[in-house]
Amino acid sequence: MMKSRAECVIIGGGVVGTAIAYYLAKGGMTDCVLVEADYLSSGATGRCGGGIRQQWSTEANTRLAIESVREFSSLEDELGADIEFLQGGYLILAYTDEDVAQFEKNVALQQGLGLDVSILTPDEITERVVPQLNTDGVRMATYCPSDASANPFLTTTAYANAARRLGVEIELFTPVTRVLTEHGKVTGVETSKGTISTPLVVNVAGSHSVPIAATAGVNLPITPYRRQILVTEPLERFFHPMIISFSLGIYFRQVRHGSVIGGFGDPDEPAGFNQTSSLEFLTTMSSKLAFLMPRLRSVKIVRQWGGMYDLTPDAQPILGETDGVEGFFQASGFSGHGFMIAPKVAMLVAQVVAGQKPDLDISRLNARRFAEGPVTTDRSVV
Amino acid sequence: MNRDVIICRCEDVTYGEIVDVIDEGLTTTEEIKRVLRCGMGPCQGRTCSRLIARIIAEKTGAKVADVPYPTVRPPSRPVEIGTLAEPDAVNVRTLTGTDDEE
């Protein structure tokens, strides 16, 4: 039987939702219910590339990412589970004048924050990091060896199991039909299995956060865009970093299992709830991989799939309380980089939900920023 | 059944491993696929999905017909990247603006 009353209800069983549930319970709020419309990591989390990057173009994002890597690096011990965490680095390739100018600025900023990032020449890339990479056209690269990756399914499952051990109840296959409010305050959540009365609701449903918030009269400026990804047959480990380029449009890495996994965002992709696969993606991605790593030409692709970015106007998440609806908190709009910042963001949101002062200020990421004036976008979104 | 029997032969997943995650609360082929990798190999679950659906049915009391299979994803057979790649599709000269010089 699902609880009919709880101290807090979390909507969404992706990595951020399960992590918020865990950090709330760890902080003492154990009477929580997490409701998930499908199964754990069935949405954007389970469809992502699993990269964990600290190289960003703004100070606030870089700091948040550095803190998240710190949390990730002790997460397996803390949660008592293998999440395939690997600090294999991120290699970001520059092809254009704009890339070079932006990356030089980024590296100066990131080094100032203590990040172990450096600029590599094309020769240094093949001599020191990835011998198999075709550097034709590459002007330079930035390389941060402490950037990382992990398995999104295992991370989500680890958070969920740790939350359960602390008393959190997780209801799968339980879609939310309405967030209930009275006199500007949250009173409960109506689901397919009944209603849970609660004064605190955290909406962590990715692109689905928009229709959920709308049931409480809240408009979230989040637009879903399909992104596609593919995976090859497994190979013996031959490179460690996630390799990405904003101008060429690609990211790929080799996972522990041995497969190479990667994708790119089609700039002409129309908005919408679409997770289907396309032949155009398969051929374009194959062309990019064959160009960048000729050794992969003889390697077979076994599977492709789609997922959704929940994109906000500044490609930054929407975090924190909701003006006009007391007790209603948002944590969505991660715009394609939710997994990598999940541990720290979830910890901060849990602190805000529990009425504590978060140890990093997240007020700049409240939804009210969009009403206050123009926003600036981080240049490092792939 | 012997716990060591291989159910997913692409990813070497045994009957025992599958029974254990069902006991931990996973009740669908989609969830089991994501945690154990069965169905993620070259055959894409053509062999193991039916077997796993039957194990889930046995363990949970559901009818086999009511246990859905995981989403089937393209390509239907593994294909070499070199077969799919289009020659000259990636031209970094266009990207770097040095096209005119050649």
What would you say this structure looks like, in words?
Chain A is 29% helix and 26% strand. Chain A is of the alpha/beta class and 382 residues long. Chain A has two domains: 167 residues, FAD/NAD(P)-binding domain, CATH 3.50.50.60; 147 residues, D-Amino Acid Oxidase, subunit A, domain 2 (D-Amino Acid Oxidase, Chain A, domain 2). Chain A has an eight-stranded mixed beta sheet with strand order 5-6-4-14-15-16-13-17, sandwiched between helices. Chain A is globular and about 65 Å long. The model of chain A has no long low-confidence stretch (mean pLDDT 96). With 102 residues, chain B is mainly alpha-helical. In chain B, α1 packs across α3. In chain B, a hairpin with a 4-residue loop joins β1 and β2. At the A-B interface, α5, α7 and β17 of A face α2, β3, α4 and α5 of B. β17 of chain A pairs antiparallel with β3 of chain B, so a sheet runs across the interface.
Using CB atoms under 8 Å apart, which protein chain pair has the greatest interface?
A: A-B, 43 and 29 residues
Radius of gyration of chain B: 21 Å
CATH T-level fold name of the domain at 6-74 in chain B: Arc Repressor Mutant, subunit A
CATH architectural group of the largest domain in chain A:
3-Layer(bba) Sandwich
**In CATH terms, what is the architecture of the domain at 6-74 in chain B?**
Orthogonal Bundle
Going by CATH, the homologous superfamily of the domain at 6-74 in chain B would be BFD-like [2Fe-2S]-binding domain
Distance between the termini of chain A: 43 Å
Helix fraction of chain A by DSSP (H/I, runs of at least 4): 25-40%
CATH fold topology of the largest domain in chain A: FAD/NAD(P)-binding domain
Largest sheet of chain A: 8 strands, mixed
Number of helices of chain B: 5
In terms of structural class, how would the helical and strand content of chain B be classed?
mainly alpha
Q: How many H/I helical runs of chain A?
A: 9
What assembly state would you assign to the polypeptide chains in this entry?
heterodimer
Mean pLDDT of chain B: 90
Question: What is the element string of chain A, with H for helices and E for strands?
Answer: EHEEHEHEHEEHEEEEEHEEEEHEEEHH
Low-pLDDT runs of chain A: none
The overall strand count of chain A is 19
